[in-house]
Amino acid sequence: MRAAVVVFPGSNCDHDLFWVLNDIVGLNTAYVWHEDTKLVDFDLIVLPGGFSYGDYLRSGAIAARSPIMDAVRDAAEKGRAVIGICNGFQILTEAGLLPGALLPNINLRFISTWVYMRVENNSTVFTHKYRKGEIIRMPIAHAEGRYYVDNGALTELQRNGQIVFRYSDAEGNSVDYCNPNGSIDFIAGICNRAGNVLGLMPHPERCCERSLGGVDGLRVFTSLVQCLSS
Amino acid sequence: MAKKRFRDFGLSENEYTSLVAKLGREPTNVELAIIGALWSEHCSYKSSKIYLSSMPRTGERVVVSEGENAGAVELDDELVAIFKVESHNHPSYIEPYQGAATGVGGILRDIFTMGARPIALMDQLFFGESKAPKMSHLVSRVVKGIGDYGNRVGVPTVGGMVYVHRCYNFNILVNVFALGITSKRGIFSSKAKGLGNYLLYVGNSTGLDGVKGAIMASDRFSSENSRDDILPTVQIGDPFVEKLLIEATLEALSTGYVVALQDMGAAGLSSSSYEMAAKGDVGFVLDLDRVPLREENLTPEAIMLSETQERMLLVVMKDKVEEVKNIFNKWGVPSAVVGKITDDRMGKVLYKGSEIANIPVYLEPPVYKRAVEPYVPPQKPSLFPPKNGKEVEEIASTLVSTPEIANKEWIFSQYDYMVRTNTVIPPGSDAALLRIKKKDVSLAITSDVNPAYCFLDPFIGTLQAIAEAARNLASVGAEPLGVTNCLNFGNPEDPKVMWQFARAVDGISTGCKTLGIPVVSGNVSFYNQTDENSVYPTPTIVMVGIKKDGYTVPNFFRKGGEKIVAIGALRQEEFGGSLYQRYILNKEGGRPPTVDLKSEIKINDFVRFVIKKRLITSVHDISEGGLLLALLEMSFPQSVGFTVAVEIPAVSLFSESQGVFIVTCEDTNLDRLCYLADSLNVHCSVLGDTVDQDLWTVEYAEGVVSSRVSSFSKLWNEGFSRYFALE
Hints:
The structure holds 2 protein chains of 2 kinds. Chain A has helices at 14-24, 68-77, 87-94, 151-159, 218-229, and strands at 2-7, 28-33, 44-47, 81-85, 101-103, 111-119, 135-142, 146-148, 163-168, 187-191, 197-200. Chain A is globular. Helices cover 22% and strands 26% of the residues of chain A. By secondary structure, chain B is α+β, with helices and mostly antiparallel strands. Chain B contains 23 helices and 28 strands. In chain B, β4, α7 (135-153) and β5 (157-164) form a beta-alpha-beta unit. The longest helix of chain B is centred in the C-terminal third of the chain and has 21 residues, at 495-515. Chain B starts with 12 loop residues before the first helix and ends with a helix. The model of chain B has no long low-confidence stretch (mean pLDDT 94). At the A-B interface, α1 and β6 of A face α7 and α10 of B.
């Protein structure tokens, strides 16, 4: 089982993901440079957080046109697991692998804090170790995380169970003050129709060890390990 | 012709005369520009040098403490931590966003040019009162500048401090600290070496931004300068390029083909070329026609003095230059060979085929022993003690809302403090704690200074900053490893300022020698003055510590039903420079709090010991605002109340006793804690209990005060943004 962490110029969570995948959950992990064009023999492809191309133009817009993205698209079509976290989520929407867009936070500031989320769909390869409706806590750190889609596409997402995580309070209620960036329908993470491509703004890789304040992110990776190895 | 221009480049008449004598001729215009920058206060430390040598620089763990861009201390047999704090005061007042951002960029380059990967940033910010012109704008733009730069380069900002005083109304201070780690063998130097080796320019193309920045930063502001005159001296940052530069440089250094390197910081190409050659005792030839330029028709002076950001100068082995260029190319960072190393100790600059400068790589800058004159601080004002519980409550509610005490979440929620997944204790605690992956040691970092104390007595005030920093490290269980400092002062030509400076340096030397902590790096920033208004002496201390096990306790109450104990003796009349004087009496005077370092050493050891033995459940030291504010700060995070009884008068609840920790413990551990303290001759007194109620109560000598935790917590949470009217 092999995992790839794609490195774009300006990626800055690439080392953090490598640490979790390689050293914590024990996947054979490699960095892949954005100018490469092939992703052979990888079961999991990770687009890490950061500021690819400095977020210039729009966050994720330039990285979405990198040479490696054709290979990512190809892997997604073949059903391989693809996860984009924070800037990785922005790249996936810009590349058209996930619907919608990520707009500047409603308060127009960078927000670095911990948030609660409700697990809405636990039938994906990324989430099957969570309970449906479980409340989990993860860090966020972004300036452009306000998820938006038009009404028609939102209805589709809802109907197909593509909303994987929603922001909530500690009891699981989606009330306005718990929506850190103003995302539509409290959306924190979504998957594609087939369920093998996940994008989310919170950082599961930052909460895999108790000493860092929580372990609620670890099951994203252990879910993947279990699914991909079976 | 050059003669008439020496003042434009910041030189005095005497300095110019001495330059002519050293050269044996009149300098050319370009030479004058170069020397003006190299001899500026900012680059040459000409007013401070004679004092700085008194600081203790050696220690068992010190690897580098002089002559390089930052200091290095060892963490274990393999790893070293490299760190430094630096000012970016003048630019941040002129243009707060770019000024603060480029401060972050500059200090990071000082770290990774030594071969270390930066893993932490911290900022010490000194703002004016909210009513000062554009202060709210300065606060929000400085914070955004730091956040945007630090976040984009992927280095976590793990803490810092904020202090507000009218003395910063026209001169805010922005100090930035960075720390990196590398292996002992991975430390790189800025000593140029090797005849025929190439000078490789890497990074942004040179433009007109920041020209003469070092010279601007070596002068005071005057109400006669318009902002438009000095705006072009401020640099413009591009964190995306910096991120690429970090990755490309670390990769290039790993090849072993790079001999030496330095950031093009203050005074840009002039300082990097001449300083590296001087340190390595070699010469160089630099061809300005090969320097990548962002605009046409730059004068050679402008090319030599530009402070365009995200540029560095590397000395590369002569037969390996293509390999090194390829690495920068892979990361999309431009590079160009601009010269080579010679052996004649002369720095030659070529432009359009002719030699426009040819001067020794080291021309000893002037050194000044400036006049000093002590002053008598203002008398201590009458205390007007609170007459009843209601008045105590009012004072407490005022102090809890001050920007010094209030929750700084408005600031640090704009900083990515978690990236790189090492942050064990995030901002908002007494010290930040970072684990080091695959190692059993953690790093603790804290920064401190109380400028009001330093104004009343610069020696005691600076000693207090050292003591407070050591105390904060103890509160996370860490042992001090080393100190870096940023000395922010007014005009050194003012004898009173120079006296403050001399006394503050003495405070650092005495404090660090007594505690056995080496000073491994530092920075001096003079001329923080507008017209006749000088900043208070502000010797920022950043202390780095090490911790062998990962066990820590929070700096807040966890739950009700625990005992609250004071470790160290409470003093009743420490009001000089206190928050009580500043915000309640609106006057400052008298002596700053007494600092007893010998006793603090013992107390710090004790606190580390009881953390390690798991005898205590939380710990926080008394600092600004005194005992009551320390208790309140501990009650907010988990909304835990407290009931405390002390035999001191009401006003002494706000006395800023030094060397006292408030700890909590389980009831069952109380006897053991007190017994241990007694046997080690550490003062220990039981204050009361934590309670599972929305209530705090303090019984003092002549009465009692009580209020809700939640209402005070609200004031604490909203205090910072309310004070500066931030959104």
